[in-house]
Amino acid sequence: MSTLTAGQKAPDFTANDQQGKAVSLQQFTGKKVVLYFYPKDDTPGCTAEACDFRDNYQSLTAQDIVVLGVSVDDEKSHQKFITKHDLPFTLLADTDKKIVEDYGVWVEKNNFGKKYMGIARKTFLINEEGVITHIIDKVDTKNATAQVLALLK
Is 50 helix (H, G, I), strand (E, B) or coil? Predict the structure, then answer.
């Protein structure tokens, strides 16, 4: 597993969205992409982050930014999450963990002394040429959009 840094070409990927349609990073060439990784659908922090992107979606799309959320949940879980919280953006089902591994966010976690593998919450900003411009390691779930927009100024 490699550690990605700003200035590197973002690893391309293809994964199914919540509708089972294949989505690849390459199809967004010419647009900025907010690629955000989150641990699990419909958990408190992940819901706060998704709803913050939802509530501020217009300010992102106004700057020609595409929002893609990624977790290892399946398409059906993503559909429920989107419907329950009225999310206007695409969620990708990385059930084979290829994207999370390519982006270095599949990590060992520790909860109450129990070690397990899971997704580190992280956001990547990718420019129109597919290059990573910023990486947000410490995501503020309630202000995720503000963190992104502050980096684009």
Answer: helix
